[in-house]
Amino acid sequence: MRNIIKYGFIFYLALASCVALSQEQIESESILNDAEVNYTFNLFEADRYFLQDNFDLAENYYQLCLHMKPDNPFILYRLASIYLNSNDLSQAEEYVDRCIELDNSNEWYLYLAGNIYNISKKFKKAESIFKLLIDKNPNEFDFYICLADVYIQDNQLKSAIKVYDFVEKKFGIDETLLIQKKNIYLKLNNKKKAESEMLKLVQTFPDELQFKRVLADFYLQTNNVNKSISIFKEMVNDHSDGYSHLGLASCYQHLGDLDNFYNELEAGFSSPVVPCDIKVGILIDILGSLKSNKDEFERVYKLSEILVKNYPDNPDVNTIYADFQMNKGNIDIARLALEKVVQYRKDKYSIWEHILLIDNQLNDWISLFKHSNEAIEYFPNIPLFYFLNGFSGFQLSKYEQSKKSLEMGLSILPKNDKLQSDFLTFLGETYYNLGDKKKAYDCFDKLIDIDPNNIMVLNNYSYYLSLDKQNLDRAKSMSYSTIMMEPENPTYLDTYAWILFEMKSYSESLKYIKKAVELDRTRSEVLIEHYGDILYFNGDVDGALEQWKRVKTLGKGGDKINEKIESKKYVE
After folding, report:
1. Sign of the alpha-carbon dihedral angle for 151, 156, 161, 167
2. Could you report the per-residue pLDDT of 457-480, keeping only the tens digit for each?
3. Model pTM score
4. Nearest to 488 by CA among 445, 518, 522
């Protein structure tokens, strides 16, 4: 159905001044009174806003005009148009009724009335209006189409067919009407008549490939698959038509022939004639019904490869391709595809989240820091993005930036969010690396209140206290909890041994450090140096010297390692 044409008149008011008139001339002129001037001004404003599609203001001015001239059909016509546009059908019908009561000769008024009655399901009234319009102007094609549409809406399908047949005789064959007739015949379960309309379409327009495809689709729709295949194959052979490859794929899917289905899809996807969005839509539909079949998955994956080769920068294609790569475990390739997506769609939260999580999974702190900075620009209220920025900044020793991001993210984090522990952990570590031990320990205390079994914090916090040589009893208690939870973790055993060392419990300390050394597979320099220090205070100077020298073979060691070796003494 056509859109209602916004048609009307614009009135211009010319105001003249500085013209000297005689008294006799003034008396002889017909001068507009104030009411007429006011009406003309309001009508001018109403039309101006109407033509700008500012219907709220237009309605206000038309209502003012209607108040001054309640029997003006044009004002009623415009108001009916506005109410139809806002889907207020009762008001639209009320105003258009009044309009055509005042003037039932204006085609524009009648045309609007017919459309309003049809939409409001007042089919008899709509029918009479369009019949009247046809009587008034029998050569207006659109009036017949509107009448047929009324019959279709009222389920008078045979009456609609009669109108279309008459239109065809009067105006000639129209492809859209033939397709519409085909659809009506199918509703009437008259496949033979529907086929006749499609054959007429192809015979009338023999050079139009799309009409042959419509015929082939009709045969597929009516379960005459072999005829459909025959037409599609003819077009593929004669024209290398990409759409026909897709049509053949539908036929083979209907027959359950998956090999030929995917072969034809690959040919259709390789065709430059078929737009990318159609191919993407097909691929999405297949993915929605794809079963856990490895061979079929690989065939669908091949389709995505064809698309990414032909449309390397298309965001939809790269989104799908990234999903495939993640399913195959190729997260680095998936990230490259997602990076192309955000070049064009920077406002896609889920894409940024995937990129950042892949960065984190790959331990690519440089990329994670860069990407999270950019993501925050577009999503400044997402705590996760601040955490990942702060976390990656910490890994890169960018402690000031890490502090800023973690503090900001924590400030907008909802209460009791599960990320709170992660924020406090790395914020505390960041404060410690910046030398602000008080804030660091405050974070650790809050974290232990929230999560008393956070093993990483218990270990680090207790170790930091041992380095400070303060609150060693608490440090010992926290560290002991860690070795109860993981009794064969060499890092936790080393921390506990060192706390005992600082508490001068040398023999007990030696027991735990020996176990840590036995379990350590990382050849930790810190752990070996601690072992040497503890041996020294247990009276084994040679053993201590051996371990200190071993540290040198492993790496640099602590600041005092050379002095310890040279003096053969423990140096604090």
Report:
1. negative
2. 999 999 999 999 989 999 999 999
3. 0.70
4. 518
Tokens linked to 67: 């108040």
> pLDDT class for 6, splitting at 50, 70, 90?
very low
> What does the DSSP assignment read for 134-200?
HHH-TT-HHHHHHHHHHHHHTT-HHHHHHHHHHHHHHH---HHHHHHHHHHHHHTT-HHHHHHHHHH
Q: How many other β-carbons are positioned within 10 Å of the β-carbon of residue 492?
A: 26
Closest CA to 157 of 112, 193, 128: 193
pLDDT band at 31 (very low <50, low <70, confident <90, very high): very low
What is the reported pLDDT for 33? 61
Residue 20 has what pLDDT?
Answer: 36
Angle between helices 399-412 and 420-433 (to 10 degrees): 150
CB pairs under 8 A, 24+ apart, for 7-16? 7/108, 8/47, 8/50, 8/74, 8/77, 8/78, 9/47, 9/74, 10/44, 10/47, 10/48, 10/51, 11/40, 11/43, 11/44, 11/47, 12/44, 13/37, 13/40, 13/41, 13/44
For residue 24, pLDDT over 70 is answered with no
CA 55 from centroid of its chain's CA atoms: 32
Q: What are the tens digits of pLDDT across the range 235-286?
A: 888 777 889 999 999 999 999 999 999 999 999 999 999 999 999 999 999 8
Q: Are 513 and 530 in contact (CB under 8 A)?
A: yes
Residue 416, sorted as left (phi over 0), alpha (psi -120 to 50) or beta, turns out to be: left
Beta carbons within 10 angstroms of residue 310's beta carbon? 15
Q: Which residue has the tokens 């191919």?
A: 279
Q: Give the residue carrying structure tokens 């008149």.
A: 9
Q: Cβ-count burial of 340 within 10 angstroms (0-12 exposed, 13-18 middle, 19+ buried)?
A: buried
Tell me the per-residue pLDDT of 162-186, one tens digit each, with 9 for 90 and over: 999 999 999 998 889 999 999 999 9
CA distances from 133 to 94, 110, 334, 429, 469 (A): 20, 7, 61, 82, 100
Distance CA 207, CA 419 (A): 64
CA trace torsion 71, 77, 80, 84 (10° rounding): 180
State which H helix or E strand residue 55 sits in.
helix 55-68
